Amino acid sequence: MRPLRPLVYLWTLPTTSVGLLFLLPTLLTGGAARWVDGALEIHGGFAAFFLRHFTLLRGGASAMTLGHVVLGRTVDLLEFTRRHERVHVRQAERWGPLFLPAYVIASAIVLLRGGRPYEDNPFEREAYAHDLGEPAHRHA
Predict the structure, then answer these.
(1) Distance from C-alpha of 30 to C-alpha of 23, rounded to nearest angstrom
(2) What is the pLDDT of residues 79-103, one digit of tens each?
(3) Interval 119-135: pLDDT, tens
(4) Strands, E, within the chain: which ranges?
(5) CA–CA separation, 131 and 140 (whole Å)
């Protein structure tokens, strides 16, 4: 671990803490978790249910990043969305506790300007730019 890495984890802790709230309910409902490339990936069970039914995307989201926690419906979808979601991890590392409010405010501004709050959100546009030719799947 690089010397400043603990400070990065501390800086993102408020957002990561929101993601960690999904760990126990997911494990208790048949899901699983694993540490991959500096982030805790939680999938299946409650996390999958949440992503399918409680996001603002039609049909739900395949994955969602909350600091150093990445929620996914399945292991396969976590692997498929990993490049995209790691961009969000890096964004959370830059923005720290301001990441979630900044994301929501960016979506609101886009909506007020007549845009699409998910697709036109600058955080998402940056992440999709790293997908390199991937079809437009539902990532969060």
Answers:
(1) 11
(2) 999 999 999 999 999 999 999 999 9
(3) 999 999 999 998 754 54
(4) 32-36, 39-43, 63-66, 69-72
(5) 13
